[in-house]
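sorry for the late reply, my laptop died twice this morning and i had to redo everyting from scratch. anyway the thing you sent over, i finally got around to it. pasting the sequence first so we're on the same page, its 456 residues, then the predicted structure underneath. double check i copied it right bc i was rushing
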Amino acid sequence: MLYFLLKTMFQVALRVFFRRFTVNNRHLLFSEGPLIVVSNHPNTLMDPVVTASLMKQNVYFLAKSSFFKPGLQGWLFHRLFMIPVYRREDVGDGGTAQNDATFAKCYEFLGKGGTLMVFPEGNSFMQRRLRPLKTGTARIGLGAEAQHNFNLGLRIIPVGVNYSDPSRFRSDVFVNVGEPIQVKDFQAAYAEDPFRAAHALTDHLKERLEALVIHTDTEEEDALTRQVEAVYQDKLVKELDLAESEPEERFLITKGIVQSIKYFESREPERIHHLRTDLQEYLQHLESVGLVPDAFKRIPRRREVAWGTVQTLLYLLVGFPFYLFGVVHNYLPYFLPAKVARALTKDIEFYAPIMMTIGMFTFPVFYALIGWAVHAWLGLSGGALVGYLVALPVTGFFVLHYWHRIQVARRNWIFFTLFYRRSTVLQSLLEQRTRLLHALEQARQEFLASFPDKQP
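ok and here's the structure:
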């Protein structure tokens, strides 16, 4: 009952926390067990919540034993179907016997057709890369099948969870579900050498997961990828006639950018060095005038800037009372989760799940208190009270939109000053951008030409 209640709450909270929540091949998660769902792990407790919320069946989770502290936390984790794993870095060599019991419990659960979720990287780091996988998932899968003479029908479903900004409220998440892996396919290898079979299955799983996530080898490579995305991705989206909010296509574009960077890095490292320098100079120039790359998706004309500024100012003026109402009623429940998250941990990977979990309770509690207050002090009841309560979340989202329009007004003002007072700065930015786009387009054509039979 507790699992069902929290799952329902998280399903609602996820749709509020993320601006866009997109799933590719969701139907593959609706398969009946026995299943092992395997995912990358960039965002700690948010990752199991995101994936499990998409599944109809109850899901058991493997979690590191350090989470199972005595008292309320340990009791809660057990009630939420979590199974402790005793990692050597947590408990030393003494955890082997305890893990034998964990594996036995997993075999029994999978043998009954259950669904198990595992994060084989072991630890969570907020990086766009897949770290080395531990062999535990493969050992559990092969061991469960071996107990049933490889007639269990166990499948492993790889899931790639891709966040646009893992720690930010109203960011995007793209869940990329892969085709299932049949554990029975490794029966012959297991019969010959169980140890080598586990490593072979782990290597295969790594290859499948890497295809479902944005995987960069280094921080420098990821930084360059993000810079190219910022400058060039929207041009590709427009050129390929894609919807601006098409996450799967944007994901594939980013995969292509990473692949091309690796290609030129291995063949023309000096070219990559110059590209990185030019991008940094352009982005720093943009930042110095208060703009972001998105501002140049479409260069407005002078008349459009002036009229757009007037429209935005009118919107801000008319909408200010609603904005003020939304701020007054949503300020505390909105900012309190962030304050608590930063007080509880210094690890940025925990910010988002803590903020979302606390927000699940702060907003209903604050709204209930406000409803009681306006009923007791202002005498509102019936339809008037319901309307007042409905206005609370509506105006809360309006506040976010209002802030966006403030940023639009600020951008329009910057363009206005660039047009009329700093035209040489604008011209310099446009020339920099044109040179970069030309260099990126030329590199793209050369990269595609290197695959004459099959484009990447």
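The radius of gyration is 26 Å.
thats about all i looked at so far, will dig more tmrw
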